[in-house]
Specification:
The protein is α+β, with helices and mostly antiparallel strands and about 575 residues long. Helices cover about 50% and strands about 10% of the residues.
């Protein structure tokens, strides 16, 4: 190929030069890049590869003539950049934090400083932890190795620290290994510099092509890339909405921060917008639609791109409208899901939000609230969007388009919520030792919806599980109805058996301590001996406890209680 046709120039940069360019602000990120998302184990492996001289992939930079729509890696520098990172952001950002010992911005919009530790004796890198800090064999934070122009002082300090260890240690080898860490500054990165003649759309296409080869990006990231090129202010709105949902608002200013404590991410909001505007569950189709492709004849036109982008813009404005957002949150909250931890499927939450936006266009508000509560709980209980969610969402949105939302919701629920579901399938779902089990979390929501109190207490479960609850001491506890140690000592049962969710109930911590490992008959008699028959029956009813308890075999009790818990959920659902 004639070099004049190339859109890039290959170069070699030493790592130290790249990091210094980031530090001075000469290298920054384009708006189309995501925040830093690597976990620290990936950073550790990257350092290990550099140390061993292994290849770590290309870096792609775009030389720009005018600095617009960029994000700083080094938050302390105000200089306009000359280069933007198109590929290699995660590597460069993590290496900058380590080598310069500076904060970077994480995916949760928090400032973080990456700490990697090194053991020169075993020649091993590890993510920093408290145990490493206490060990003489480790240099807890390798950032110290890069602080000065020489490693001499640090090497001497380390050798003095380990001199009393009962190990055969060669001082020269230790010094060489520490110096070898410092020498990763000389690591030669292969860099492609994209031509400044490329326009943002061409760079966006390069970015998508590069990242679609692996798993660096998902379809929502491709859509964010298009937004950065064609509608950067829209991406800013989306990211600002997400950022504010993570932070308590200042001076009671309007904010996406909410009473449930749910924190959207770009993918979940984009899924909502795409479902609402284009009736699409597969985000790859939405990306093509926003590029202006006709999905039938596969042709791309500028006119169609502008038309679809305007539709997307309207959908984003409606989705991010704070009144609409908080009204939806209140509906989910009023169904008993008062905390983010009770919502096991975020996909279900946000596709339900998409359906809510559609309903607002056609229904009166009272009917909307009931339909949305039922659809959300139905989708959770049937795990509708757990397996192959995109295809199921696409299927549902197509049916909604053809027969209408209200008819679709009512018919789908009627078909799936049969007697067999309530009496056989749901009790089987409750056969679990995980408190994150979707059916168990829905059971808790049902108790909250009924304003249930903690057993043998005046404290409401709602008040204990709400996000704002803060207590210096543990006031409420999950109690094993058949006490754990009683089951271990008398029946030699394991965790999977004694931790069954059907064996759990909330009581006050002091009562749980008092009950300890007592025989169920003993403690139940102690707590209920002064109750009337009516009061005792109410307890059995409210907390889904078999009336034969505590004179039951343990596994018979579990089987019966699961059915009663399923019945409680059924009653709750039809009250919504």
């Amino acid at each position: 190929m004639n070099n004049r046709n190339l859109t890039f120039t290959p170069k070699t940069y030493q790592l130290e030069n790249l990091i210094n360019d980031i530090d001075t602000g000469n290298i920054a990120l384009p708006d189309l890049q995501r925040p830093f998302v690597w976990d620290t184990t990936k950073v550790r492996d990257l350092i290990d590869s550099l140390y061993k001289g292994l290849p770590t992939g290309l870096i792609i930079l775009w030389e720009i003539l005018e600095a617009n729509n960029f994000k700083k890696i080094n938050q302390e520098n105000k200089r306009d950049p000359r280069f933007l990172v198109i590929d290699g952001q995660q590597r460069l950002t993590s290496l900058f934090s380590i080598i310069k010992n500076k904060n970077i911005i994480s995916k949760n919009v928090h400032k973080i400083k990456i700490k990697i530790s090194f053991n020169p004796i075993d020649e091993k890198f590890e993510v920093y932890n408290a145990a490493i800090e206490k060990s003489k064999e480790w240099i807890p934070n390798i950032s110290k190795i890069f602080e000065n122009s020489s490693s001499f002082e640090l090497i001497e300090e380390y050798l003095n620290k380990i001199k009393d260890l009962d190990k055969n240690i060669d001082r020269k080898i230790i010094a060489h290994r520490i110096e070898k860490v410092r020498n990763i500054l000389n690591y030669p990165f292969q860099v492609l510099e994209l031509s400044p003649d490329l326009d943002p759309e061409e760079v966006s296409e390069i970015f998508v092509r590069i990242n679609s080869k692996g798993q660096t990006l998902n379809q929502s990231d491709f859509i964010l890339t298009l937004m950065s090129v064609y509608w950067p202010e829209g991406r800013d709105k989306l990211e600002n909405f997400i950022k504010k949902s993570h932070q308590l608002p200042d001076n009671n200013m309007p904010s996406s921060y909410n009473i449930i404590g749910i924190k959207p991410i770009p993918e979940t909001l984009i899924r909502t917008i795409v479902g609402y505007t284009f009736n699409r569950g597969r985000l790859k189709y939405a990306y093509l639609i926003l590029k202006g492709r006709d999905l039938e004849n596969r042709k791309i036109s500028e006119e169609l791109r502008e038309k679809n982008l305007n539709i997307f813009k309207e959908g984003l404005e409606k989705t991010l409208d704070l009144t609409t957002w908080h009204n939806f949150i209140k509906i989910i909250h009023s169904a008993g899901f008062i905390d983010d931890s009770l919502i096991c499927s975020k996909v279900t939450f946000f596709i339900t939000y998409s359906i809510y936006l559609k309903l607002l266009q056609k229904q009166n508000n009272a009917n909307v609230e009931s339909l949305i509560k039922k659809w959300f709980v139905f989708s959770i209980l049937t795990q509708r969007y757990t397996t192959s969610p995109e295809s199921k969402i696409e299927e549902d949105l197509n049916k909604i388009k053809n027969i209408g939302i209200e008819k679709f919701i009512k018919e789908t629920i009627k078909i799936n919520f049969t007697n067999d579901f309530w009496e056989i399938i749901l009790p089987e779902h409750l056969e679990s030792a995980s408190t994150l089990n979707f059916a168990y979390l829905t059971y808790l929501a049902a108790l909250i919806y009924d304003d249930t109190k903690v057993l043998f207490s005046d404290i409401k479960l709602r008040d204990y599980l709400k996000p704002s609850f803060k207590s210096p001491k543990k006031t409420i506890d999950k109690h094993h109805i058949y006490p754990k140690n009683y089951l271990i000592n008398n029946f030699n049962l394991g965790k999977k058996d004694y931790n069954q969710v059907a064996n759990l109930i909330y009581i006050e911590y002091k009562d749980n301590i008092k009950i300890s490992n007592k025989n169920p008959l003993q403690y139940w008699t102690m707590y209920t001996k002064n109750l009337t028959t009516k009061e005792l029956n109410e307890i059995y009813e409210i907390y889904s406890i078999p009336k034969e308890f505590p004179n039951m075999e343990y596994f018979d009790f579990l089987k019966k209680r699961r059915k009663l818990m399923a019945k409680k959920i059924e009653q709750y659902f039809y009250k919504l």
